[in-house]
Amino acid sequence: MSWLIGLTGSIGMGKSTTAKMFAEEGCAVWDADAAVHRLYSVGGAAVAPMQAAFPAAIVDGAVSRDTLKAEIAKDGSALRVIEGIVHPLVAEDRQGFIAGTDADIVVLDIPLLFEGSGHKMVDTTVCVSVPPEMQRERVLARGTMTEDQFEMIKAKQMPDAEKRALADHVVITDTLDHARDQVREIVTEIRKKLKNA
Ligand SMILES: CC(C)(COP(=O)(O)OP(=O)(O)OC[C@H]1O[C@@H](n2cnc3c(N)ncnc32)[C@H](O)[C@@H]1O)[C@@H](O)C(=O)NCCC(=O)NCCS
Ligand SMILES: Nc1ncnc2c1ncn2[C@@H]1O[C@H](COP(=O)(O)OP(=O)(O)OP(=O)(O)O)[C@@H](O)[C@H]1O
């Protein structure tokens, strides 16, 4: 059995970048957003149920994220319908990953760790964080979301301060070197525990 870390943080706070750092330390990493990408792609398990709920969202055999965003913009409750389809499939993908790895530490990158029940299934929770102005700058610099879309997603997520209060560790992602140091400390602490267990 691997030691499970749940890695979370609000939109654009640096989850993916920090997850890569855990991978560099030898942890196996599973990424919930990447699982959603697989589920939405041609042949993915979300395509058929999404077609039933939002026929216009299937383009060339895959789920179109732009169409989903337009559906959500039209009717906010669409996101709940999408989540109802996607979340059980994501959970299945995650269980398969955990069962198939023999890494000593598995990092589960889960944006909605504390909003859902994900935190109950992990041994350690880690939240990535930077001040809100830096978060906004980073998200808008990607150019994939309008300011309104960013605010809408942020409003659906638990506020950063609450996540930080719930997490066992907070990783400040202001610079790459600072974040890497904090990741190494967490990994060292867990490996020490595993050695003494
Ligand atoms: C809304 C969608 C179409 C936007 O797609 P897009 O490619 O523009 O953005 P991306 O997927 O990269 O998400 C951007 C940020 O929003 C967060 N986010 C995505 N869905 C949600 C949600 N349901 N609630 C809160 N935050 C969310 C992501 O974790 C990420 O931090 C897409 O995120 C989606 O289909 N979401 C539903 C599935 C879901 O709940 N995923 C969350 C992880 S399981
Ligand atoms: N430690 C860091 N130092 C400097 N820049 C960083 C750091 N971590 C992340 N960033 C930058 O912040 C932006 C967002 O990072 P990343 O994509 O890792 O966030 P995320 O939380 O996975 O995003 P999302 O929730 O939207 O999927 C990127 O431009 C990334 O390069």
TrEMBL record:
<dbReference type="InterPro" id="IPR027417">
    <property type="entry name" value="P-loop_NTPase"/>
</dbReference>
<keyword id="KW-0418">Kinase</keyword>
<keyword id="KW-0067">ATP-binding</keyword>
<dbReference type="GO" id="GO:0005737">
    <property type="term" value="C:cytoplasm"/>
</dbReference>
<comment type="similarity">
    <text>Belongs to the CoaE family.</text>
</comment>
<keyword id="KW-0547">Nucleotide-binding</keyword>
<comment type="pathway">
    <text>Cofactor biosynthesis; coenzyme A biosynthesis; CoA from (R)-pantothenate: step 5/5.</text>
</comment>
<keyword id="KW-0963">Cytoplasm</keyword>
<dbReference type="GO" id="GO:0005524">
    <property type="term" value="F:ATP binding"/>
</dbReference>
<dbReference type="Pfam" id="PF01121">
    <property type="entry name" value="CoaE"/>
</dbReference>
<keyword id="KW-0808">Transferase</keyword>
<protein>
    <recommendedName>
        <fullName>Dephospho-CoA kinase</fullName>
        <ecNumber>2.7.1.24</ecNumber>
    </recommendedName>
</protein>
<dbReference type="InterPro" id="IPR001977">
    <property type="entry name" value="Depp_CoAkinase"/>
</dbReference>
<feature type="binding site">
    <location>
        <begin position="12"/>
        <end position="17"/>
    </location>
    <ligand>
        <name>ATP</name>
    </ligand>
</feature>
<comment type="function">
    <text>Catalyzes the phosphorylation of the 3'-hydroxyl group of dephosphocoenzyme A to form coenzyme A.</text>
</comment>
<dbReference type="GO" id="GO:0004140">
    <property type="term" value="F:dephospho-CoA kinase activity"/>
</dbReference>
<dbReference type="GO" id="GO:0015937">
    <property type="term" value="P:coenzyme A biosynthetic process"/>
</dbReference>
<keyword id="KW-0173">Coenzyme A biosynthesis</keyword>
